[in-house]
Design brief:
By secondary structure, the chain is of the alpha/beta class. It has two domains: about 110 residues, no CATH class; about 180 residues, 3-Layer(aba) Sandwich (Rossmann fold), CATH 3.40.50. It is built from nine helices and 14 strands. Helix 2 packs antiparallel against helix 8. It is globular, with a radius of gyration of 20 Å.
């Protein structure tokens, strides 16, 4: 089995950051890619977001996985043993529910978490192997949005790819289809994908989830400017930008923006540009698409999967879909 060594130097993002920031801030309206959120500080802030009362996403998905983990594993494996892969694994917190169910079924489980953060994968590997004997963690430092490379499975194995946490919602509709097609191309017929998607719900629930009273989400949003100051030598003053969360019903998505409170110019020496902001002008930093009933299954079908079963919570706020590669 081949895995990519766990070293921060194995994945370089400086050129990617420079080109993406230049393109985004030179556009009208201005934007930044949401993956910029997840430096070390941003990842810690996001972990805090998942624990605040207003943010229903993590606890709702966890409740679904808690209730159905054994069934998910059994359906995905059939008569075979199961190997688990996770895209954008991060801390792999909810994944432990599925890993425990898999170990109860077959004693030893190979788990391949995939993420661009080597440090997050190291922490997850140590925690999981200590907490769940029987799980062998084979981490991959890899950008799954660009390439998905997996080792061949044994004839007696099926693979279950986990793409949970509603991460698919951060992609534009065309991009999400291409991503799922890329996942399908990496799988053998009969392998499975478990997809977690956030569902459309009352606007007030959505708005408070993305603009919490404690201001954790606002700090998470502004941290992208702190990162640009550090990595591109920029002179953003994050305190002069307000966090704004907006429900775009026409496109079925929550949007996050950073709005300049004043007229100002920001200098980014690393990419040799000065960016002018009018008072009230925003940087669009994230989209989080919310799915209507049946839309996730239709998307999976377009990508080459056969949807088998979808589980939801009692409020129908979140859905977890199991689909098989055909």
């Amino acid at each position: 089995m081949t895995t990519i060594p766990l070293s921060p130097s194995s994945f370089h993002v400086s050129d990617k950051i420079a080109s993406s920031v230049y393109e985004g801030l030179m556009s009208s309206p201005k934007w930044l890619p949401s993956w910029l959120f997840y430096d070390a500080a941003g990842s810690r802030l996001f972990d805090q977001i998942t624990q605040i009362p207003e943010y229903y996403v993590t606890r709702t998905e966890r409740s679904i996985l808690t209730a159905h983990a054994a069934e998910i594993v059994s359906r995905a494996a059939g008569e075979n043993s199961l190997r688990l892969v996770e895209l954008g694994a991060g801390s792999a917190d909810k994944t432990r529910l599925l890993l425990s169910a898999a170990v109860n079924r077959q004693d030893t489980v190979f788990y391949e978490p995939m993420d661009v953060s080597a440090s997050a994968l190291v922490e997850a590997q140590i925690r999981i192997e200590n907490e769940i004997p029987g799980v062998l963690v084979c981490p991959r430092v890899q950008d799954y949005t660009q390439d998905i490379e997996l080792d061949a499975t044994l004839p007696s194995e099926r693979r279950l790819v986990l793409y949970i946490g509603s991460s698919i919602g951060n992609f534009e509709p065309g991009e999400s289809l291409m991503l799922l097609e890329r996942v399908r191309a990496a799988l053998d017929p009969g392998d499975c994908l478990l997809l977690g998607v956030d569902l459309v719900k009352d606007e007030s629930v959505l708005h408070t989830a993305y603009d919490d009273a404690a201001g954790v989400t606002a700090a998470f949003n502004r941290n992208v400017l702190v990162r640009l100051n550090r990595e591109l030598d920029a002179d953003f003053r994050p305190e002069t930008f307000a966090h704004r969360a907006v429900w775009n019903s026409a496109d079925s998505r929550m949007e996050m923006h950073l709005v300049s409170n004043i007229k100002q110019t920001v200098w980014l020496p690393a990419i040799d540009v000065r960016v002018n902001f009018e008072a009230g002008e925003s940087i669009h930093t994230e989209n989080s698409y919310k799915y209507r009933k049946g839309c996730a299954e239709a998307l999976l079908q377009k990508a080459g999967f056969a949807p088998e079963i979808t589980w939801t919570d009692e409020n129908e706020w979140f859905a977890v879909c199991l689909a098989r590669a055909v």
